[in-house]
Design goal:
- The protein has seven helices and eight strands; from the N terminus they run βββαβααβαβαβαβα.
- The chain has 223 residues and is α/β, with parallel strands linked by helices.
- Strands 1-2-4-3-5-6-7-8 form an eight-stranded mixed sheet, sandwiched between helices.
- Strand 1 and strand 2 form a beta hairpin.
- The longest helix is centred in the C-terminal third of the chain and has 20 residues.
Length: 223
């Protein structure tokens, strides 16, 4: 089982992070980056599943800059967007960097993000050396893709019925891919199709995406 740990960013800010430890030492590591709703039970469940597969996982609570333990229900999208917009990106970078430091056992760290976090994972990898990026329906990707791509291999999972990431946006993401990247689209899937706690969940598409994600990360860390 995972536990909550206290970490400190370089500017002195203290934040909490959900941490799962693997029996392997040193273990491959993943930093999971939240949706706009905070570190939900769905995210801690995802962390546990990766932990069962031998990964050390850290999920930083980015909203601790606003209020400790700030988590919103999925129906509170307006409040969640308002919370997200209160954060400065230089502070977000410091908090994720602190999570990377906590996660790394010497084998490097992959970034895995969902929705807002899916864009942040890519953006963070443009600034920092990481082993890999996995982005599930990442918002903001079209903006970030205008700059040089991360050196790390990336994997993208996008629903073809996602009203937040239309066909033009998907083409922009696909067009930015390097030879080491993997790009997948899922028919019949909308935004947040991999989140079992939301009505948009699509079991078959989510299972396929999750299988591809684990295979990709296993291959990255096997190198």
């Amino acid at each position: 089982m995972g536990r909550w740990a206290d970490i400190r960013a370089l500017d002195g800010h203290g934040l909490s992070a959900y941490l799962t430890s693997s029996n392997d030492s040193p273990a491959p590591a993943i930093v999971v980056i939240q949706e706009i709703f905070g570190v939900t039970t769905e995210l801690t469940s995802i962390a546990e599943k990766f932990g069962e597969n031998g990964y050390r996982v850290v999920v930083p609570a980015l909203y601790d800059r606003i209020e400790q333990d700030y988590v919103l229900d999925y129906v509170q999208a307006d409040l969640a967007r308002a919370a997200k917009n209160q954060l400065r990106y230089d502070e977000i970078e410091l908090d994720i960097a602190a999570a990377i430091t906590l996660a790394d056992t010497g084998r490097g760290v992959a970034l895995l993000g969902y929705c807002w976090g899916g864009g942040l994972a890519y953006w963070m990898a443009q600034k920092h050396s990481v082993r890999a990026v996995v982005s599930y329906y990442g918002t903001g990707l079209t903006q970030y893709c205008k700059s040089s791509p991360p050196e790390a291999p990336c994997q993208f999972h996008l629903g073809m019925d996602d009203l937040m990431i239309d066909a033009e946006a998907r083409r922009a993401v696909q067009g930015s891919c390097k030879s080491s990247d993997q790009y997948f689209e899922y028919e019949g899937a909308g935004h947040a199709f991999a989140n079992v706690a939301r009505p948009s969940y699509r079991q078959d598409q989510a299972a396929l995406a999750n299988s591809r994600c684990l295979t990709f990360l296993d291959q990255v860390f096997a190198c």
